[in-house]
Every structure is written in C-alpha cells, then in structure tokens.
Write a structure and sequence with these properties.
The chain is mostly helical. It is built from six helices and no strands. The longest helix has 18 residues.
Length: about 150
Amino acid sequence: MNTRTQNGFTPLDQGLYEAAFQLLDPGPQPAAPQAPAAPLPVPSSPAIAPPAHRPGPVEKTLSDALGFLDTHGWARHSLIHPEGARCSIGALRAAAGARTTAYRDAGNLLLDEARRQHGKKWQTIPHWNDSHTGAQVRSVWEAAIHRAHHLNI
C-alpha cells in the first residue's frame, strides 16, 4: 500500500529500509502473515475468588477443640475419661497444647457464650460443662466458633 502524504520528507525505498534492519538484527525472516486467530471469548463477568479465610488463633483453638471432642468424645465430671473422652476444658487444653493467650481467650469466649445461652450464674467452664447435655454444650461451642470467626480472632 502506497499512501503519499504531504509531510516534506523524502520517500524511502522500502527494500532499503528492510535491508538496514536486516543488518541490525539478522534474525530469522518473519513468516508470511497468517490469518488472525479467532478472538478468545470474553467472560461476561470476571470470576474473582474471595480471599481464603485464615482462622485466627482463638477460632483455630476452638475449632480444634471441638474436633477433638468429635473424635474422642465428650465427658462430664472428669477432665479426661479413662477411654479418652474429655470435658470442654480438657478439649481446650488438648487443642492449645499449652496455656497460651489463644487458650485463655478461647476459654473466655466459650464461657461468655455459655453465659449468653444458659445464664450468668456459670463461673467456670467445668461447672457449666457438667450441668448441661451434650447437645447444649455443642451449641455453645459452635456459637463461640462462629463469634471468633466474625471477630476475626
């Protein structure tokens, strides 16, 4: 295609122009032009995955402790039952591994949730644990985990 414009420049010989670039970059000759590829379909809306949730130390401790209860069983009136079941405080200790800040905060959140559901009279986790059914105890555990998740702790 030869299009001439009035720009005041001397027209270049296209062959000379290509030869000059060949000397500067003697790489392989470009292949003959091909038909353009079909365009890729464009999604109507980009799929953006939400960020993965990483539980905080309190949520993790509570979740691990409930998992321990699910696996080994729940007990009353005993920190550790001879068959391996534990009470709520025993499960917290097993999950935390040590009396860490996460252990303390998880216990406080669990006791606070127990008081929300079962009244303010409960002073300790063991007394509350020993006075309720397995379903009631599980309900408190699940609510405490839910709160820890939403508080991002």
